[in-house]
Amino acid sequence: MSLLAQAEDVSIMDNRILDEWVLPFGQWIDQMVDWIDQNMGGVLDVIRWPFAFLIENMVDNFIAEISWVWVCLGFFLIGSLIRNVKVGATAALALAGCGLLGTNYWFETARTIGMIMVAVILCAIVGIPVGIMCGRFDGVWNVVRPTLDAMQVVHPFVYMLPVIFFFSFGVVPGTMVTMVFAIPPLIRLTNLGIRQVPEDVVEASRAFGAPELRVLTDVQLPLARPAIMTGLNQTLLLSISMIGIAAIMGAGGLGLLVFRAVSNLDVALAASAGLALFLVAVVLDRISQPEADDGGSLYTRIQQAWAHRSDPETLLDEVESQAVAARDAAAAKARGDYAPIDPSERVGMAAAAAGAVLAMASTFMTWGSEAGVITGYARVVDQNATGDSANLSGQSFNGFAASGGSWFGYITFAAGLFVVVSAVKAFMTPGKGPRWFSPDGAMYAAGAAVGASLGYFLAAPSDFSTNYVRGPGALLAVIGSLIALAGAAYWLTNAPFSPFRPLAPGVGVGRLMGGAAAVALVVIAVFSGWSFDKRANTIISAELQAELDQVLLDVENGVLSEAIAAQTIQRLNNSAIKSELIVIDGKASEGAGLGLVTLGFIVLGGLLLIPAAGVGVTDQNRQWVWSTLSASAGFATMALTTGWVVTIMRAADRRFFSGAGAFLAFVAGFFMLASSRALIAEFRRRKVYEELMDEIIEAEIAGVDLDDALEPQLVSAGGDL
After folding, report:
1. In terms of pTM, does the model score above 0.85?
2. Containing domain of residue 7, as a range?
3. Same domain flag for 134 and 228
4. Has residue 16 got a pLDDT over 50?
5. SS3 letters for 346-405?
């Protein structure tokens, strides 16, 4: 059988018949695009204007132009006002980390923040009113809903092409595509929030004579706020996930750096740009999260937003359950009085604070003289071997000086201050205030002080810093930090803490695996490079020097011209840098040897983690103590590696860098901390009513009179049960 007006030799059962009956859908769209481009230029300009205006004034002329310090401070204030001080400080530190990657990374970070903010602002301007109309008028929702379905089902690449055709490449079309992709969850959740407002509340407001505008602004919008805020957060997450696709359109930002790194197979660029993009995403996500929704990693939250982009309503159930759990936890914490400070705790507090004050005072004393112990590896001015390089002879440096303790001293001082504040705060208002101003928080800080001070004290000086003399301040810092650690440990063992909720019995296999991973990482770190020296003056061998001398001699004899000689010298230097790169690992005698120190910290933390995970120990309070001790070893490792990396960042010559070994050791310390953090966070200072109930149960079992059994506790609690 053949079809009329088609090739008679082709049967309808033959697939080739499809070429004879082609539906010209693509041509239809192409014709419409051409017509719009030719006849609706004014409309396209109107659509383009808000994007171009906001990007020019908010991104190019504001965020990208002001100092990075003001941007970080601004996000600190925004995070503190919208969420809390912790979120604000995290946002500021994360953005500062983006800036420390380099000027180019900071510029692209600022552009990325601006692009996302513009997209979210325009989504809010358009999406919230549309969602409100959908929630109040069924006819509007019936029209908008299939449009949203199409926007969420069609891949962004499909509508990216018309946008490029109409608006070319650049930031503006990239932001448009981001907005189209990210706006549907906001409209859907706003619609759902309006519709979920109890009908009796709405009818009651109308019965009292409220006009429809007042019903909307005073009743529906306030009650729909959680759903709208969740929609904004989902829109933000989807905007972040579109940064890479927008970069293909020439939108710039960190996505462009990632795209460029993938195209050029540049691992260093990909890693740095990926880290900056991750930090920006964390900052924006944490600031925009609903108050009750602090759980889940960034990757998990973006994954959920992507998976539920067509049905974001299901996410509200999880948010509501978390809010209920948070309210229940707050109500439970409000009951009862915290146990008072006993004499044994006071002894530990006093010892920890005294050691911390001693460590803080030591940072104002001499930590080194004649040369720099850490900076002796990183810059020539801190080397005093011979001749003109003896620039620091007769000079001494305290714990804050670049050639002295530098960031080892800063960390020691900050950690000591935290121990003192923790002791004072816990003594004045036990159990109240920030959770980490407590014995386990003091242990964390004391561990960091020990890691920083002991790391500096044990660091071997460079071979070029033969005259280096270690000052008394470094030794005093170690002694004070160890006293603070011992005092905090004594305070910890005598603190009346208990788990906020029942803990799972048995051995924590996952925690042991985390500790094993930390040990494995630090072993790798010991054998990895802790410093990379690409300076030409440090890698010129005797053979290379002979070649350079021969080139100069040829110039003097007229064999080579000066231009050719300069090119030859540059080529020899470049080849030396590539082939003779000096890499010092964490155990080499030519290096500071800090890799072995971190190995000791992590191995000690791993041994402490065994009883902390429940191996041979069933008492939960003892597990808490062992866990805190193990976590403090992780903090010590993180403090030491941070001191090494940031000290070199502060003072190093160009082409001298800290190595990946220090980063791996830092990650090992973080793994050790993370292995215990979840259990530690469950413990709170015991309430008085808990102790009284224990006494009641024991008295009833023993048949003792309750008045006699509870008299001491009632007196200490003020006489109230």
Report:
1. no
2. 1-39
3. yes
4. yes
5. HHHHHHHHHHHHHHHHHCCCEEEECCCCCHHHHCHHHCCCCHHHCCCCCCEEECCCCCCC
